[in-house]
Amino acid sequence: MLPGFLTRAVGLLLGREGRSLHVKAAGGASTVLVAVMAAGSCAVVAAEHGARGAQITTYPRALWWSIETATTVGYGDFYPVTLWGRVIGSVVMVVGITAYGMVTAAFATWFVSRDQKRRHHLVQDAERAAHALREETAHALHERFDRIERLLDDRKTP
């Protein structure tokens, strides 16, 4: 059940042709982050197994540790004591910081692009309104000039 869910979730995040680049980047970064946290949890349990003073000895604890490490919260309740555990922790930290930075940048890009599109439409609407006003003014002036010419012509002919 879970692998099917993950496959669908990854497909939704990454697979759509019409999705913009920032949505694909945020989806890809999030997918990589979840995979690294899950793999890092398994790896840190293996690395810490049997070490003196090891606190990360079960998968649930390791998963909690990887979440707080990736988010840079770092409560300090669990931490690796072995060299390989710390290496794994460093990888989880770097991937977490990078992924959250990419997601934040993707959201910022999305907000900016929405605002630019809105402004572009406002400018286009203003240009259309100005063009219509110029056309209307030109038409009214032509009508008045035509009327003045007719009046002048009527005065010239006896």
Question: What can you tell me about this protein's structure?
Answer:
By secondary structure, the protein is mostly helical. It is built from four helices and no strands. The chain has helices at residues 2-14, 21-48, 59-70, 83-156. Helix 2 (21-48) crosses helix 3 and helix 2 packs antiparallel against helix 4. It is rod-shaped, with a radius of gyration of 33 Å.
Lay out the secondary structure.
Layout: H1 2-14, H2 21-48, H3 59-70, H4 83-156
Helix pairs in contact: 2-3, 2-4
Features:
single chain, 158 residues, mainly alpha
Distance between the termini: 100 Å
Secondary structure: number of strands: 0
Judged by helices, strands and strand pairing, the structural class is mainly alpha
Count of individual helical segments = 4
